[in-house]
Amino acid sequence: MVFVRPLASICTLAALLTCTQGQELDGRELYLEQCASCHGVDLEGQPDWMARLPNGRLPAPPHDETGHTWHHSDRQLFRIIKEGLASIVPGYETDMPAFGDTMRDDEIRSVLDYIKGTWPERQTDYQRAKSQADGE
Prior knowledge:
The protein is mostly helical. The chain has 6 helices and no strands.
């Protein structure tokens, strides 16, 4: 009888952990909710994304293999989303907000995993090497 309560607690905890671990975030869904309005449903970015707008800022770049997202390490990409682009390029002006107050860290990582999962091998290998060189 002494072991019933601890055993029940352990089973309950194990069930909660299993449930939480089994509920993986859907990076594509989060991307569509948070990013697609600017970066495109198919990660294509805005038209003429390398031509400055009248306000001097650049349109939202693509996140597919045609853009430059894969040129950045995981650490840089995470900081850009969470803290804004100025966190890695001080003084840079962009229309993209920081998402640190909107998205949890695990949600940001899930979006990045989705984006990276769409790249061809060449871009994936390049980006992985950049992340390793950045200490990740």
